[in-house]
């Protein structure tokens, strides 16, 4: 390591994650950072936290803000997604959105999710192979959320395109590239214009889709404004699609690399839900999250100044040996799959139930129908992201796909 590299590493311990060579397996780096304990950069602008205990404390600490800056928003700033708000604004918006994401509402989607998965497997049988990302993991969540929102079926690919462009700028790699940021802003504007027209229609016509529910949702006289609706829809679309795609892909890859676990799930389909939780623990779609210290505080033995951005290494916390035995092993025999993949505290993922349902259906139907599956490791390409982890391409071969 050169002197310049050492200085960069001290200023930002996460800088090594930008190395493309780390992308296939960042976990040795996360382990090393976790073992060093909480670290604060020399200028106090960044703190990194990796143990499960410390991450959990920060996620529940009211002194830790989800806002990107301590500076107040300008009066003409557009409404923010509740992901980047603190109470009481976050509490109000989240409570309104949660009214549409009830367990009963999510459970009603199970037959449709199963149909989409089976159709994808039928198509793979006809082709004699499939790309697990492009043919299954990516189309499923964008189709489900699009149909639930009441978007015309033919517009699903359009929404997926906007989502992928926007997501690139949400990752540190993309955020550092001007062209990526500009493309994301344009995609965000087109997405807002598209849903602005749909909202106008739903405001005039009664409907049963999720968008209609969000338009009508109300509590104690509070409703979502048009700006808040657009910010919320963008969050549901981008976060729900991108992270669920990676959850499915990461889980299938882990089991394909551990055929004994695949066989265990095939023999006992009731383990599908545990397979989802173990995937979230073992190879989480969201590797990092951030909080902003609003007051001087102490995390572990580290003194964190007010204004410091605290990077929570969820991927490291989920494999903390203080919490899990053999944390680097994927095992469906693991009964305690405690993880922070959906965050914790006030910002626990509002769409967690839907993501879990989609992944469980995929795991159950895949193991029941696909005979002797084998991933082509040479085809495996990871997305060029640091935070949102998952394959971009992953080819699968098999001997047959059973018909029901």
UniProtKB/TrEMBL annotation:
UniProt keyword Heme present: yes
Annotated family: Belongs to the cytochrome P450 family.
Keywords linked to the UniProt accession: Heme, Iron, Metal-binding, Monooxygenase, Oxidoreductase
Organism superkingdom: Bacteria
Protein name per the record: Cytochrome P450
GO MF, one example: monooxygenase activity
């Amino acid at each position: 390591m050169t002197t310049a590299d050492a200085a960069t590493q001290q200023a930002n311990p996460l800088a090594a994650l930008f190395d493309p060579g780390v992308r296939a397996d960042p976990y040795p780096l996360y382990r090393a950072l976790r073992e060093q304990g909480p670290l604060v950069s020399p200028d106090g602008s960044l703190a990194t936290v990796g143990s499960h205990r410390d991450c959990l404390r920060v996620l529940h600490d009211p002194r830790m803000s989800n806002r990107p800056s301590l500076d107040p928003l300008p009066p003409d700033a557009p409404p923010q997604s509740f992901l980047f708000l603190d109470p009481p604004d976050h509490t109000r918006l989240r409570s309104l959105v949660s009214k549409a994401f009830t367990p009963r509402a999510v459970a009603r989607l199970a037959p449709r999710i199963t149909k989409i998965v089976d159709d994808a497997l039928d198509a793979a049988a006809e082709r004699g192979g499939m790309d697990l990302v492009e043919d299954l993991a990516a189309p499923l969540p964008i189709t489900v959320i699009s149909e639930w929102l009441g978007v015309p079926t033919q517009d699903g690919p359009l929404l997926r395109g906007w989502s992928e462009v926007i997501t690139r700028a949400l990752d540190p790699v993309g955020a550092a590239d001007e062209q990526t940021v500009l493309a994301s802003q344009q995609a965000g504007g087109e997405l807002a214009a598209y849903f602005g027209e749909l909202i106008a229609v739903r405001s005039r016509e009664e409907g049963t889709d999720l968008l209609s529910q969000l338009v009508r949702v109300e509590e104690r006289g509070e409703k979502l404004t048009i700006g808040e609706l657009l910010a919320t829809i963008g969050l549901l679309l981008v976060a729900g699609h991108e992270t669920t795609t990676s959850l499915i892909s990461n889980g299938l890859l882990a089991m394909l690399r551990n055929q004994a676990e695949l066989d265990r799930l095939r023999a006992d389909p009731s383990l599908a839900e545990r397979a989802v939780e173990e995937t979230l623990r073992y190879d989480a779609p969201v590797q990092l999250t951030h909080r902003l210290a609003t007051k001087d505080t102490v995390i572990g033995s580290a003194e964190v100044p007010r204004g410091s951005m605290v990077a929570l290494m969820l991927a490291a916390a989920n494999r903390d040996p203080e919490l899990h035995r053999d944390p680097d092993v994927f095992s469906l025999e693991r009964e305690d799959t405690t993880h922070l993949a959906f965050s914790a505290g006030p910002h626990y993922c509002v769409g967690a139930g839907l993501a879990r349902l989609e992944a469980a259906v995929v795991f159950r139907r895949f193991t029941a129908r696909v005979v002797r599956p084998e991933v082509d490791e040479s085809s495996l390409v990871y997305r060029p992201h640091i935070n949102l982890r998952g394959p971009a391409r992953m080819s699968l071969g098999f001997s047959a796909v059973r018909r029901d």
